[in-house]
Design brief:
single chain; 259 residues; alpha+beta; four-stranded mixed sheet; 5 helices; 77% helix; rod-shaped
Length: 259
């Protein structure tokens, strides 16, 4: 096979013409189409990116709104719970105050009723005791009873210590010895009492006899600040005083206390 220069040149020219025709007819339109497509894709990508950023911003805004709403709802719930708790506490406190006031009022009323009833009972017992003692003294009013009372008074003086007896003597010397009787004292009672007083307290002591109807029965002897008595009123007052002390002690014992 021989090399044909003409054929080679013809084919070379044909190839160059073909390349030029393809470049003019195919390459440039295709390149323009590709460029247009690239630009369109770039624009679409930019639009998509912008839309994505807008969506992200909107989502962020929605998330912030949701968080703010959640925080606000939590705050409102806490405030509502706090308000409900405060109102409930105030209502309970009001109810407790009213209940306590009612209990205290009832307790005060009951205490007053009990105190009035107790006082009435004690006074009635004292009156009954004084009445019974008065009747007893009247039934036993004779020289023997007076003699026993005088002997009891003499024993009481004898039971005093030296210091106490010296004090009684001093008071008797500076003031009268007052003997109060429920009724006019008999001559024997006057003589017996005066003898005991003079023997124990001194001959110079002045004895003054008085009638005190409030004694009801019996007699009382007062020397200065000291007093000896055997009377219905005295026994009744002593009983009433002792009964009141016992009642006070019983009232102070708490309910359900240990025996």
């Amino acid at each position: 096979m021989t090399f044909d220069l003409f054929t080679f040149l013809a084919q070379l020219v044909n190839f160059v013409v073909l390349i030029g025709a393809m470049h003019a007819v195919l390459y440039r339109p295709v390149r323009r189409a590709l460029e247009a497509r690239r630009v369109a894709m770039a624009r679409e990508w930019a639009d998509a990116e912008a839309a994505r950023r807008d969506a992200d911003r909107e989502a962020e805004g929605l998330r912030e709104q949701r968080e703010a709403w959640s925080a606000s709802r939590s705050e409102r719930l806490e405030a509502l719970e706090q308000e409900v708790s405060e109102r409930r506490g105030e209502a309970l406190a009001d109810v407790e105050r009213e209940a306590r006031a009612a209990r205290e009022a009832h307790a005060d009323a009951l205490r007053r009723d009990v105190m009035e009833a107790r006082e009435a009972v004690l006074q009635a017992c004292g009156r009954l005791l004084r009445d019974e003692l008065e009747r007893g003294f009247d039934a036993l009013a004779d020289a023997e009873v007076d003699a026993r009372c005088v002997a009891a008074f003499e024993r009481s003086l004898g039971e005093l210590g030296e210091a106490a007896l010296a004090e009684v003597r001093s008071e008797a010397a500076s003031s009268d010895v007052r003997v109060q009787t429920a009724h006019a004292a008999s001559e024997r009672l006057r003589d017996d009492l005066s003898k005991v007083i003079h023997d124990v307290l001194g001959e110079a002591v002045h004895v003054q006899f008085e009638v005190d109807a409030s004694l009801l029965a019996g007699f009382a002897i007062r020397v200065g600040s000291r007093e000896w008595g055997w009377s219905a009123a005295g026994f009744g007052a002593a009983f009433e005083h002792t009964a009141r002390e016992v009642a006070d002690e019983v009232a102070e014992v708490p309910h359900g206390g240990a025996a």
